[in-house]
Amino acid sequence: MITVAGFNTAIDHLFTLDALAPGAVQRAARAELYPGGKGLHVAQTVAALGERVQLVGLTDAAHRNLIARRMAGRGVLFHGVEIEAPLRSCIAVREADGRVTEILGPGPALAPAAQEELLRTWWRCAEESALLVLSGSLPRGFVADTYARMVRQAAAAGLPCLVDASGEALRHAAAAGARLLKPNRDEAAELCGCRIDAPEAAAAVARALHAQGVAQPVVTLGAEGAVGFDGRQAWHAAVVLERSVNAVGSGDCLLAGLAVALKRGEPLEEALRLGVACGAANAMDEETGYARRARVDALLGEVRLRRLAA
Ligand SMILES: Nc1ncnc2c1ncn2[C@@H]1O[C@H](COP(=O)(O)OP(=O)(O)OP(=O)(O)O)[C@@H](O)[C@H]1O
Ligand SMILES: [Mg+2]
After folding, report:
1. 215, part of any domain
2. Which amino acid residue places its CA nearest to atom 2 of ligand 1?
3. How far, in Å, CA of 51 to CA of 31, rounded?
4. Cα(38) to centroid of ligand 2, in Å?
5. Which residue, judged by its Cα, is nearest atom 3 of ligand 1?
6. What's the CATH code of the domain at 145?
C-alpha cells in the first residue's frame, strides 16, 4: 500500500474559452468542476499504474460525494477529514492556444483539532503502508516544518517518505532527510539560489541535496525531462512530445511514477523512466494531474535515459 498525504484538497474549476480578456465579461465554451490538489493527482495516477493507494485529505459537506465518487471511480481509498469551512477553490482558464491561467484560492485556516485529526488519520494509514508520499501545500494553520516532522516520524518507523513541497516546507523536509524530494526547476533554483539552465545544473542541486541526507533527489525540468541522483550516478530522463495540451500536474504524475517504481524495488533510473512517461502522459491530455495507463505504457519505449558525467 502507498499512502499519500494530500491534505489541502481543492475544488478545481476549468473554464475553456477562446482568449482571456482581463476586465471583460466573457462566456466560457466549456466549464468543468472536479476534485483536485496535488496529493489527489498523485494518488489517482498511482492507482492508474496498478498499485494500491490511499489518500488522506480534507473534505467538506458540499463536496463530500463528488470527491468520494471520483476517488472510488479511480481506485483510490479516500480518508476524508470533514471540516465546516469550504475547501479551497482553484480556477484554471484554458485558452484556444493552450495557455492556462491559474488562480489558487487561499483555502480554509484549520483549527488545531482538525490539524490533529489529519495527522492522526495519516499516521493510522501510514503504519499499514510500504511507502509514503507527502504532496502539495499544507492548509493554513500548519507550521512550516510539519512535513519535516512527518518525515522524521516515518523514518523512525522505517518508512520512506517522498516529498513534493516548496519554499520553507521544502527546506525543512530536506534537512529532515526525506528519501526523495522532487523540486521543479523554479523550486530548485530558489532552494540553491542559482540558475538551472541545463540538466548538469539540476544534477548539481541533486548532488547537494544528497549531501544533505536526501537519498534520491530528483529535479524536474518541464519539457526537458528530469534529473535524479542516487549517490553514485546522476541520470537524465526525458520524453520528447510533439505537442503539450496541458502540463499542469505533470510533476504530480511524475511523482506517482517514481513512487510506484520505488515501491516495487526498482533503481532510481527505472523510477525516472516511469516518472517522465507519467509526466508526459499527463501533458498529452486536457485533464490536470492524471496519467492514463495506456498513454504511459505507449510512452515508456520513447523515454531517453542517459548518464550525466560527474
Ligand atoms: N511538454 C512536456 N513534454 C514532455 N514531458 C513533459 C512536458 N511537461 C512536463 N513533462 C514531464 O513531466 C515532468 C514534470 O513536469 P514539471 O517539471 O513541469 O513539473 P512541475 O512544475 O512540478 O508540475 P506541477 O507542479 O504542475 O505538477 C517533467 O520532468 C517531464 O518529465
Ligand atoms: Mg510541482
Report:
1. yes
2. 223
3. 31
4. 8
5. 223
6. 3.40.1190.20
Q: Which atom of ligand 1 is nearest to the CA of 238?
A: 31
Ligand 1 neighbours by CB, cut-off 6 Å: 184, 220-223, 225-226, 239, 241, 244, 247-252, 254, 276, 279-280, 283
Does residue 25 sit within a domain? no
pLDDT in tens, 185-204: 999 999 999 999 999 999 99
Give the tens place of pLDDT for each residue, 235-276. Answer: 999 999 999 988 999 999 999 999 999 999 999 999 999 999
Overall size of the chain counted in residues = 310
- Could you state, in chain order, the average pLDDT of each consecutive group of 10 residues for the chain (310 residues)? 98 95 96 96 98 98 97 98 97 89 94 98 98 96 96 97 96 95 97 95 97 97 98 98 92 98 98 98 93 98 95
In-domain check, residue 74? yes
Q: Which domain holds residue 78?
A: 2-20+30-308
* Residue 136, in any domain of the structure: yes
pTM: predicted TM-score of the whole model, two decimal places: 0.96
Placement of cell 470533514 in the chain: 82
Domains held by the chain: number: 1
CB neighbours of 302 closer than 8 A, spacing ≥ 6? 239, 240, 277
Residue indicated by cell numbers 526523495: 180
Hey, how many other C-beta atoms are within 10 angstroms of the C-beta on 264?
Answer: 15
- Is the Cβ–Cβ distance between 214 and 160 less than 8 Å? no
